[in-house]
UniProtKB/TrEMBL annotation, chain A:
Designated name of the protein: Protein phosphatase 2, regulatory subunit A, beta b
All copies of domain Phosphatase PP2A regulatory subunit A/Splicing factor 3B subunit 1-like HEAT repeat, residue ranges: 274-355
UniProt HEAT repeat ranges: 87-125, 164-202, 203-241, 242-280, 281-318, 324-362, 363-401, 402-440, 480-518, 519-557, 558-586
Taxonomic source organism: Oryzias sinensis (Chinese medaka)
GO cellular component: cytosol; nucleus; protein phosphatase type 2A complex
Keywords: Repeat
Domain Phosphatase 2A Regulatory Subunit A helical: 87-268
Source superkingdom: Eukaryota
Gene Ontology MF terms in the entry: protein phosphatase regulator activity
InterPro entries linked to this entry: 2AA_helical, ARM-like, ARM-type_fold, HEAT, HEAT_type_2, PP2A/SF3B1-like_HEAT, PP2A_Regulatory_Subunit_A
A Pfam cross-reference name: PPP2R1A-like_HEAT
Family: Belongs to the phosphatase 2A regulatory subunit A family.
Keyword Repeat in annotation: yes
Automatic annotation (TrEMBL), chain B:
Domain of life: Eukaryota
Keywords: Signal
BP term (GO), one: signal transduction
Protein name, UniProt field: Serine/threonine protein phosphatase 2A regulatory subunit
Species per Swiss-Prot/TrEMBL record: Oryzias sinensis (Chinese medaka)
């Protein structure tokens, strides 16, 4: 990179003299260009923004992106806020580029430097730029303009404000859907900086128009704006100004719009307040939970818990029991697995809201049904949220159904599913207690040690360590250590190595006594294994468990074995034995 | 999947109880088992059906041919109204009789508009459009798989196709009918209608897209007032596809229609059309799924250049700007398209663009990916391109020479080496003096490079020696 550095310096030098920097920038590879752009920024060379832009405009979008980004940080480099407007021409050009990332970055930088303009400069330099962009021929400049209105609006005079509002209105009804989308996505942001009277007179009509646009991609963005607009209006106006549109969106013929409503439901709920929620949103939410499109149902199912939590407390329970729960019951046996698994990831949260009795009577059957679901993700989502139920009714209520579900997941054909369930084992063990564990789950934990996927064996090893931390060394000595050590005689060398990996993980938790008396002899014996991989893992294990052993064992037993391994015929064995020796010496 | 296969290298059967005999290295720790689930055919239907529950009843009407001619237009309208009823095809058991009745009625209507005369009263137009709209316009359902890959995955088929197909068939016959009068129809087939029609091109079902293509083509042909609007909307679809979503199933079909539209452009080309070429068609090359519509796209581009050769330079510069950096398959496509362009290029235009163009070709020729190199080298089999190269050999030869010379010695693929050899031979015959000069320069350049390399190596060695000495000394005193 010192070469790159030189190149960059060279560019800067030549551009200062007005030499052929175009040629240089153009010819070299993109990386150098990127680097040199950053260097420009560092060494304070900005001799003419317009030329810089002109030189690079025909080039890579990557370079333009870096340029757009850097120009946002150039204020001090061009002489401070007083001169910041000289950054506008190149950014204006970049804001008209087709490539979306470049354009967005240019807009971001423009937004940033707009704050560095004095109110006068903002009107003299910045606002005309926004106007030019807003009335550009090609859609790109008009989409960019949409993002700039809200940053200059609060700081200009009222006549200019009126112009800006007019421009925004025009863009909201632009005949290019791309521009209408850009306007719709900035509607909420723009509404926030407007004076309250204009929110009512201007924004509402734009909002209504965009929400009934012919393109669903525009309509769905209006739903997003709905959240911000609703928070800006006094409660008494919501019913007449916002709700008709929101109701219409919740029943839109396009599933994308309905999906958006479902996805934003919690925000909408907060924005419109509890009265409207009771009267309007509850039935709307019911409909979304019963939507004909699985996508929409899944999005709504995801919001069940949040929606219930945010219901007004005075009759929350009643609403849930009479309106929401029946729909939830249906979703438990939905035909689509994404819907079921979305529900399974939140349904347990309802138990804290509904309390012990309702949970046992109404929710428990649903949990149990989902624990038996054919789709592993559903079962997994239930198991991974067990802690919520545990707080309310304890896990024992579930244990009868839990066990078959766990066993089945433990043997699932997809290794990722098996991996996920292993990760919940320590939690389950803690909640179910040692007896239950020994009786039902211990075998599973041992079986994972000989899984045919390495990631599972590795996770199983780690799991054992966590179990020992929970249940103690004595438990380990009686239940798992013998089994682990037994695998040292397995015909399969991968299993023999698993013994070593387990010892690495367990020695610390088991303590000196068990490690020295029971584990060490096995490790030492394995140093004669025929497979080199096992032998060098012996060396690694000895290094790992060394600190747990007493110095006598280290000197009399470990050292001779390592020294022998250090003369092994295999290169790797030798290497790791030497590593171990030097590590243990220090 | 690949990851899973990689990792699930499985151990030997777990069940075999571990025996105590330790002598065992015959055991292969790794055996493979991977079963791929057979894919089932998927079908889907529009998302307009909310569970209606109630069975649908239609009162059977007499056949059109069984009633006197004067009553036929009236009956025709009635049948159209009946066909507005839409059935749920995802439920394969519901309304079987009525589904069959509608199918046969649609069939009858298709035949009727094909052969009958005098049936198209003015009242029939809105009814036809209503029936067609009611059946075909619907919100397309979400794609089943999130990452639908049109090259790998089977498309999801439209469940209601048995009816839908006949509705399309009927509509096309209607548009093509001799009695069809655009002046009346334009009241009903308007911008809104076209917009909804265009949205349907995103259908995953290729059969539907095929019918849509014909429909749109007919509408473009018959409704002059809608032409500009259609072009503009296609524009918007493409721009959204390129810059926003990268997802639209009907790009190839729309391009196919555009191909024939471009063919009919009047000369000189309007600025609008040129803008479409430069700002929409060229950027379409950047899309990831280019292979799905590249043939149609290249056709459109060549159509433009045949209309107006002065567009050659911006087009080629555009392609060079978007030239793929990491995707070899796309590079091969670009090379193919470039050859199509060169096939029709005018010599005066060629001269304008030859330098940047051959710099790129020289890079392609020396690509380590042999398909890219091979595709580029095939240019030398094209007689017209050869004649252009020959005319401008003094410019092209110096650009190409070092790449060619180098790969003739270094490329791993013998077929490429053989091809390069032929190209070099052709160059030698073209301009032997220049060739000799270039050979000489190349060799001296290489020697200079080698010398530099050697000097650098020596310098490093010196540095290493210094380091060593320093290391030795640093045991004692830190050198100053």
């Amino acid at each position: 990179s010192s070469q790159q550095h030189q190149e960059a310096v060279h560019h800067c030098a030549s551009s200062r003299c007005g030499e052929d920097s175009h040629g240089k920038l153009y010819k070299n590879d993109t990386e150098t260009q990127l680097y040199s752009l950053k260097m420009y920024s560092i060494i304070h060379i900005f001799y003419s923004s317009y030329h810089l832009w002109k030189y690079t405009i025909y080039d890579e979008d990557e370079v333009l992106l870096a340029l757009a980004e850097q120009l946002g940080n150039f204020t001090m480099l061009v002489g401070g806020p007083e001169y910041v407007h000289c950054l506008l021409p190149p950014l204006e050009s970049l804001a008209t580029v087709e490539e979306t990332v470049v354009r967005d970055k240019a807009v971001e930088s423009l937004r940033k430097i707009s704050q560095e303009h004095s109110p006068v400069d903002l009107e003299v330099h910045f606002e005309p730029l926004v106007k030019r962009l807003a009335s550009g021929d090609w859609f790109t400049s008009r989409t960019s303009a949409c993002g700039l209105f809200s940053v200059c609006y609060p700081r200009v005079s009222s006549t200019v404000k009126a112009e800006i509002r007019q421009h925004f209105r025009t863009l909201c009804s632009d005949d290019t859907p791309m521009v209408r989308r850009a306007a719709a996505s900035k509607l909420g942001e723009f509404a926030k900086v407007l004076e309250p009277e204009y929110v009512k007179s201007d924004i509402i009509s734009l909002f209504t128009a965009l929400a009934s646009d012919e393109q669903d991609s525009v309509r769905l963005l209006a739903v997003e704006a709905c959240v911000s607009i609703a928070t800006l209006l006094p409660q008494e106006d919501l019913e007449t100004l916002v709700m008709p549109t929101l109701r219409q969106a919740a029943e839109d013929k396009s599933w994308r719009v309905r999906y958006m409503v479902a996805d934003k439901f919690s925000e909408l709920q907060k924005a419109v307040g509890s009265e409207i929620t009771k009267n309007d949103l509850v039935p709307a939410f019911q409909n979304l939970l019963k939507d004909c499109e699985a996508e929409v149902r899944a999005a709504a199912a995801n919001k069940v818990k949040e929606f219930c939590e945010n219901l007004p407390e005075d009759n929350r329970e009643q609403i849930i029991m009479t309106h929401i729960l029946p729909c939830v019951k249906e979703l438990v046996s939905d035909t689509n697995q994404h819907v079921k698994s979305a529900l399974a990831s939140v349904i347990m949260g309802l138990s804290t809201i509904l309390g012990k009795d309702n949970t046992i009577e109404h929710l428990l059957p649903l949990f149990l049904a989902q624990l038996k679901d054919e789709c592993p993700e559903v079962r997994l989502n239930i198991i991974s949220n067990l802690d919520c139920v545990n707080e309310v009714i304890g896990i024992r209520q579930l244990s009868q159904s839990l066990l078959p579900a766990i066993v089945e997941l433990a043997e699932d054909a997809k290794w990722r599913v098996r991996l996920a369930i292993i990760e919940y084992m320590p939690l389950l063990a803690g909640q179910l207690g040692v007896e239950f564990f020994d009786e039902k789950l211990n075998t599973l934990c041992m079986a994972w040690l000989i899984d045919h996927v390495y990631a599972i064996r590795e996770a199983a090893t780690c799991n054992l360590m966590k179990l020992v931390e929970k249940f103690g060394a004595e438990w380990a000595q009686n239940t798992i250590v013998p089994k682990v050590l037994g695998m040292a005689n397995d015909p399969n060398y991968l299993h023999r190595m698993t013994t070593l990996f387990c010892i690495n993980a367990l020695s610390e938790a088991c303590g000196q006594e068990i490690t020295t008396k029971q584990m060490l002899p096995v490790v030492l014996k394995m140093s004669n294994d025929q497979v080199a991989n096992v032998r060098f893992n012996v060396a690694k294990s000895l290094q790992k468990i060394g600190p747990v052993l007493d110095s006598n064992a280290l000197q009399t037993e470990v050292k001779p074995v390592l020294e022998k391994l250090a003369t092994d015929s295999d290169m790797d064995v030798k290497y790791f034995a030497q590593e171990a020796i030097s590590a243990l010496q220090s | 999947w690949a990851l899973q296969i990689l990792i699930s290298d499985s151990l030997l059967a777990m069940s075999s109880a571990p025996t105590t005999s330790p002598s065992v290295d015959k055991v292969d720790g790794f055996s493979r088992k991977s079963v791929r689930k057979a894919k089932q055919k998927r079908s889907q239907s529009s998302s307009q059906f909310r569970s209606q529950g109630k069975p649908i009843e239609l009162t059977p009407l007499p056949l059109l041919k069984d009633v006197p001619g004067v009553e036929q237009p009236e009956l025709f309208l009635k049948k159209l109204q009946q066909c507005c009823t839409v059935f749920d095809f995802m439920d394969t058991l519901s309304d079987l009789k009525m589904k069959e009745y509608k199918r046969s009625t649609l069939n009858e209507l298709v035949d009727y508009v094909t052969v009958s005369r005098g049936y198209l009263t003015e009242q029939a137009y809105p009814e036809v459009v209503k029936m067609v709209s009611g059946n075909i316009f619907r919100t397309l359902p979400p794609s089943d798989s999130n990452e639908f890959d049109p090259e790998e995955d089977e498309p999801t088929l439209e469940a209601s196709w048995p009816h839908l197909q006949l509705v399309y068939e009927f509509f096309i016959r209607f548009l093509e009918s001799q009695e069809f009068q655009p002046s009346i129809a334009k009241k009903y087939i308007d911008q809104k209608f076209v917009l909804q029609l265009l949205e349907l091109f995103d259908s995953e079902d290729p059969r539907e897209r095929d019918y849509l293509k014909t429909v749109l083509h007919r509408i473009y042909g018959k409704f002059l007032g809608l032409r500009a609007f259609i072009r503009k909307q296609i524009n918007n679809i493409f721009l959204r596809f390129v810059y926003e979503t990268e997802h639209f199933n009907g790009v190839a079909e729309l391009l196919e229609i555009l191909g024939s539209i471009i063919n009919g452009f009047a000369l000189p080309l309007k600025a609008e059309h040129k803008q479409f070429l430069v700002k929409v068609l060229i950027p379409l090359h950047t899309v990831r799924s280019l292979s799905l519509f590249h043939a149609q796209l290249a056709y459109c581009i060549v159509q433009f250049l045949e209309k107006d050769p002065t567009l050659t330079e911006p087009v080629i510069r555009g392609l060079l700007k978007f030239w793929p950096k990491t995707c070899s398959q796309k590079e091969v496509m670009y090379l193919g398209e470039l050859e199509e362009i060169l096939d029709v290029i005018e010599p005066t235009q060629f001269v304008k663009i030859q330098e940047p163009l051959f710099k790129q070709i020289s890079r392609c020729v020396s690509s380590p990916h042999f398909q890219v190199a091979e595709r580029a080298l095939y240019y030398w089999n094209n007689e017209y391109i050869m004649s252009l190269i020959e005319e401008n050999s003094s410019v092209i030869l110096p650009i190409m020479f070092s790449s060619l010379y180098r790969i003739s010695k270094e490329h791993w693929n013998p077929a490429i080496v053989a091809l390069v050899y032929n190209v070099l031979k052709a160059f030698m015959e073209m301009n032997s003096t220049l060739f000799d000069e270039l050979t000489a320069t190349y060799k001296s350049d290489r020697q200079r490079e080698k010398k530099k390399e050697k000097e650098r190596e020596e310098l490093w060695k010196k540095l290493e020696d210094l380091e060593l000495k320093r290391g030795l000394r640093s045991d004692g005193i830190i050198p100053t």
